[in-house]
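[step 3/7] inverse_fold.run input=structure_tokens len=789
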């Protein structure tokens, strides 16, 4: 706090360190101003500690609604009104403000950099009735009224290293340099009583020699900046060269500057008590209410005359300073009522400050005489740091005592500056805001958007449509406590650069979200269709409860399309060195497709003598057999193989009905395989090895007998049954043109020829065994037709 009232004292140092419960007055006893202040402070302390312990961390900004939310407003950044809590302290922002329009404006001299944070700084500041006349009462006349303590604040800009996040921001050097407390210490000592041998000599008893009870204030005025500790909201000073100003009445004399004429200032209110008024030899400091939270303006003029001047003349309403017009102009002060004058005491050497000039081996200054038997000693070591405005208070009594533990070195009594990040931002980021560091507080009556299911699904496209629905619906519920909220409005919007697809057939754009409503049970179920045109990217969708302000008001869903590009290909480099380094199935397929694979020069069936998938009479079948025409001459040994050609009859088994026997019967017909024999013009017989002929060994009558004996019956309504034909690629081959290896038949031909998928898939491996293959290697030939009567 920065309280500068003329009080009896500020601090209590009881032996029991536990906080007292309350102030208990006694009959007929004086009730001091300190007792009244303590009466207010005790419940405030409890409230703030309970709030901090209940709400959460002391170093994060806890907000309700949209308080302090940064939003773009034209070319400026605007921070929303509302209330926030920091370390249990309530901080109010009554209206939307910009950096330049906040209660303590920030003057941006340059761009903050690519990555930076908006930081809220708060200080408990004393508001004197001179500053705000609303706290003064005219009925009291010249009597001074009580002031008020207000939680003031300012939003700063803190440049950050790249990749800084809210979670690690407090661990960065720039944050520590700004938010760390001062480490310097102060001790107050009284002069010891002199001792002489002559008992008849009367000497001072030592101690404080003032004639009245006074409350001292020792405040850091300036010094030599320590560059490596410089924070972003003001300079930090080292021990050597430190400047302190002193007031015997807690710097409580403050007047408003109403008019300026050179170094003569007309002030108000006029003098009330000559003992506490400006006088020649005292010092006056030109100040603003913002100085307590933002010292940068005062520090900017430290190199010159500064703002602290000796008083040369003082009347009831005018104060003349020992300064030139240029010195006064350099302060920036105006006689418009927004600037003030504060009284400080003169030091024994006539200066307005005492300065630390020497430091001993223990990191302490020599005692600094401040008059009336009192001296100050600064400590904390050579690395100790102080900030402008750091202060200590103590009381000095007319009995010669002071309220300060003997020999104790204490850290500054105030002001307690608190910092919390609002958010991390990037000037080059598409959405500007990178991460929100605020913690949103829910209220007891807040609605909660609860996730019910549907996240993380995958889609395998079934059609060529661009938008295809996920197999499961996205499910949410809107609740207030344990009760559903019917009719709650849910907005579905895209997330960053993720494709969003459609909700219930409605397209989604960043500026035009899809809208759905909760049913009577507070449930929301929607169909999410993914954009197949953006299948290579994961899809993202955010559901937001319209009008919600606390946590749990937004749920994000993700989904993806099953593609080869998103499927891992795990390759054993030794097994497939050609695909070394390939990570996805899509990459593997692309790598294989880029290779030129020459079609093998293999024997192929180019014609048959039956109508594919058609009908052949038993008579023609038995007479003509089956004829296969190839694209090249076959090896003469092909016809020697016993099972080179398979012909299988498949017929309905009528006798099987109700017996559990197979409904279909299969019989392999025995036949002979030979090459076509031709005669030339001279009637010489020649063998054409381009054509293979399979002839059944039984005549038509015997075939019908076999059918009857096997229980075959004609297929109802067609008077036909199926005949499967297969040429075995392992036995049908042509001699290699080099004479070194046979080239086995490739039976993969068009469906117009065979009536089947035509990819039975056999190939010869290195050992000569039959193995599964593809249409570019050796494989069997298959076809079928139907026999009729």
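[step 3/7] decode complete -> sequence:
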């Amino acid at each position: 706090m920065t309280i500068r009232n003329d009080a009896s004292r500020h601090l209590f140092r009881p032996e029991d360190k536990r906080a007292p419960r309350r102030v208990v007055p006694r009959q007929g006893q004086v009730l001091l101003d300190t007792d009244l202040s303590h009466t207010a402070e005790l419940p405030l302390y409890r409230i703030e500690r309970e709030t901090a312990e209940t709400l959460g961390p002391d170093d994060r900004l806890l907000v309700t609604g949209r308080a302090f939310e940064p939003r773009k407003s034209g070319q400026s950044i605007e921070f929303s009104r509302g209330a926030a809590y920091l370390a249990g302290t309530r901080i109010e922002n009554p209206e939307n403000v910009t950096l330049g329009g906040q209660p303590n404006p920030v003057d941006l001299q340059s761009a903050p950099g690519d990555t930076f944070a908006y930081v809220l700084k708060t200080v408990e500041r004393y508001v004197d009735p001179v500053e705000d006349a609303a706290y003064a009462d005219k009925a009291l006349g010249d009597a001074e009224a009580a002031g008020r303590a207000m939680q003031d604040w300012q939003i700063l800009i803190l440049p950050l290293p790249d990749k800084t996040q809210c979670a690690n921001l407090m661990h960065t050097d720039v944050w520590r340099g700004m938010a760390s407390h001062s480490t310097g210490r102060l001790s107050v000592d009284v002069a010891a009583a002199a001792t002489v041998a002559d008992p008849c000599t009367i000497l001072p008893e030592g101690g404080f020699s003032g004639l009245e009870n006074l409350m001292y204030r020792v405040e850091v005025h300036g010094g030599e900046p320590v560059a490596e500790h410089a924070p972003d909201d003001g300079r930090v000073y080292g021990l050597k060269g430190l400047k302190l100003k002193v007031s015997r009445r807690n710097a409580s004399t403050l007047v408003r500057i109403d008019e300026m004429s050179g170094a003569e200032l007309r002030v108000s209110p006029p003098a009330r008590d000559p003992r506490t008024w400006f006088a020649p030899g005292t010092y006056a400091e030109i100040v603003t209410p913002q100085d307590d939270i933002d010292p940068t303006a005062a520090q900017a003029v430290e190199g010159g005359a500064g703002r602290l001047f000796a008083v040369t003349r003082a009347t009831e309403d005018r104060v003349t300073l020992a300064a030139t017009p240029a010195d006064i102009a350099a302060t920036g002060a105006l006689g418009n009522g927004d600037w003030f004058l504060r009284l400080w005491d003169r030091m024994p050497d006539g200066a307005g400050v005492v300065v630390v000039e020497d430091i001993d081996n223990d990191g302490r200054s020599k005692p600094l005489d401040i008059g009336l038997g009192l001296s100050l000693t600064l400590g904390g070591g050579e690395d100790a740091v102080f900030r402008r405005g750091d202060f200590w208070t103590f009381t000095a009594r007319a009995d010669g005592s002071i309220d300060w533990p003997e020999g104790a070195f204490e850290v500054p009594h105030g002001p307690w500056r608190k910092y919390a990040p609002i958010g991390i931002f990037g000037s080059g980021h598409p959405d500007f805001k990178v991460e929100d560091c605020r913690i949103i507080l829910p209220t007891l009556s807040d609605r909660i958007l609860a996730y019910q299911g549907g996240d993380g699904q995958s889609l395998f496209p079934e059609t060529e449509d661009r938008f295809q629905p996920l197999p499961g619906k996205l499910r949410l519920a809107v609740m207030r406590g344990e009760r559903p909220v019917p009719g709650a409005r849910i907005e579905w919007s895209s997330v960053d650069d993720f494709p969003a697809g459609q909700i219930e057939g409605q397209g989604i754009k960043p500026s035009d979200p899809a809208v759905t409503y909760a049913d009577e049970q507070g449930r929301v179920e929607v169909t999410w269709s993914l954009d197949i045109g953006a299948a290579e990217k994961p899809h993202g969708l955010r559901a937001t409860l319209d009008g919600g302000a606390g946590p749990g008001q937004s749920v994000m869903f993700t989904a993806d399309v099953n593609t080869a590009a998103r499927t891992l290909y795990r390759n054993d480099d030794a097994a497939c060195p050609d695909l070394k380094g390939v990570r996805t199935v899509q990459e593997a397929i692309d790598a294989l497709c880029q290779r030129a694979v020459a079609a093998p020069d293999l024997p192929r069936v180019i014609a048959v003598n039956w109508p594919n998938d058609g009908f052949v009479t038993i008579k023609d079948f038995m007479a003509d057999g089956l004829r296969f025409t190839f694209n090249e001459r076959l090896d003469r040994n092909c016809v020697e193989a016993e099972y080179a050609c398979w012909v299988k009859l498949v017929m309905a088994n009528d006798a099987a009905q109700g017996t559990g026997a197979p409904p279909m019967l299969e019989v392999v017909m025995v036949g002979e395989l030979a090459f076509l024999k031709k005669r030339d013009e001279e009637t010489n017989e020649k063998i054409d090895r381009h054509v293979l002929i399979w002839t059944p060994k039984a005549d038509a009558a015997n075939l019908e007998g076999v059918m009857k004996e096997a229980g075959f019956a004609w297929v109802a309504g067609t008077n036909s049954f199926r005949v499967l034909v297969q040429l075995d690629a392992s036995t049908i081959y042509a001699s290699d043109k080099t004479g070194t290896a046979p080239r086995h038949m490739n039976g993969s031909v068009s469906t117009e020829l065979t009536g089947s998928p035509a990819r039975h898939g056999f190939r010869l491996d290195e050992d000569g065994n039959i193995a599964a293959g593809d249409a570019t290697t050796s494989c069997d030939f298959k076809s079928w037709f139907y026999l009729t009567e």
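[step 4/7] annotate
The first strand starts at residue 62 and ends at 63.
Confidence is low (pLDDT under 50) at residues 754-775.
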